[in-house]
Request: fold
Amino acid sequence: MASRERSVHVEAFAPPGDFNEQLYRALKQSPWWMISIAVHVLLFVVSALLGTETGRTPLAKLVAIEMSPVADPAVPEPLDDPETEPLVDTDVQAVEPRIVETPETAEKPETDNNLDTNDVYGHVLDGKASGDFDGMANSATIGTAGGWRGGGFGPGGGRDRKGGKRGTRETERAVDDALRWLAAHQSPDGAWEAEGFGRWCDGKPVSVGPDGAGKATYDVGVSGLALLAFLGAGYTQRSEGPYGDVVRRGLRWMVNTQDAEGCFGARSSGHFVYNHAIAALAVVEAYGMTGSTMLKNPAQKGLDFIALARNPYFAWRYGVKPGDNDTSVTGWMMMALKSAKLVVESDVAAGRPGSLQFDADAFDGIRAWIEKMTDPDTGRVGYQQRGSGPARPTELVDRFPADRSESMTAVGVLARVFLGENPRTSDAIQKGAKLMADRLPTWDPVGGGTDMYYWYYATLALYQVGGAPWKAWDAAMKPAIVDSQRRDGDACGSKGSWDPIDPWSGDGGRVYATAVNAMCLEVYYRYGRVFGTK
Reply:
């Protein structure tokens, strides 16, 4: 009854005639200036609906990570000539902040486009880096990317391109060239192929590419290392420009390799645990930097599998609860867990609910294993036996003498620092640091003294220790890595990469060598020092 009365009331005040006659009569009686205003208002509304704000990307052009392969992914555009590119932070994009889910946002589809720009996740939005990049933070940014409070990334990646304590023009140029090379040799599906990387140039097939093939068994692992190199430089799946698409496709491919138990990659051999540990580290880092809802479940499942694979009361080796342990696999697992721990600490401090969960007891197991492997007299850490030094592929034992490397000692020292030991007072850390300072990096293609795996862990460990050992290492590392980078050809050839000449290059190939060396050179702006050592 009420609706009927309302209808009658409206009709009683309507002028006679149909709508067209009313509109014509109104326009005829309106002054010309009112008609002009109405037309301009209409044009403004239409433009606003079809366009975007100046300098912003239309929502339709933003691409979220999808969980199914893309038949024809976008190919990154080649970057400018490195010889003419200015050394400024124009190519490092701000990482978009994270959102706290509310009933309103939770109802939206899970895509990266739904993340609020007002909730800052360890970053600031004014283009300045967050955290303490002089190495004086209270907690370190662990893993290989950062992005958390206390020594992590802010927008701009935290990269100081003016040289000094945070790297030099030469180290930054080397990192940029390495990323260009990695981007050029990414497969169309988003992976990096340890064996077949030379088939691709900017996403297109080529007949002849650079040499340095590894083994296809390790595609997941080397893809994880490549992703970590981009994340370490501040690029995520949300970054504008070609590297955002590189990371996006790489993460999408990685997530698609995960099985029901959370393991990344196929379990075709016992060494699959290396693939999983590195992939889990990359996905946890990407989630920590962006808070992407598309990455949370894969990151959580990856951590769950790490817990499943660990031996009770100790650590990891090949397979799920194999009964024996080794320091090498344990080191990679430790990195992924420490990254997850920092994500959780950041979430708790900010009052963000629903963070990652991880096996906290694993840190006690890691500590127990490192203690068991450390020779108390020398500080040397063994692979499976106390103080025995690193392992080597059987066929390469003579070519790469184990006494030329302290890779397991580097893993042990880094683990001790990350687990709470103070480098200033820990006897084991001091002794281990001296061993590493006595075996500095050299590019040695003939004598078997090159061990990029050792360089990676020792760079992280000695940066944490600081002091004279770090100064000696830093002075030797720069020429060993920068001066040996390939400068011939272009990014679709070998320029920007490193020749795979160390004991593990037969497995990882040129992609492994390039990603690991790039991460060494990113140490200046990727990590804070846990104990504020100078």
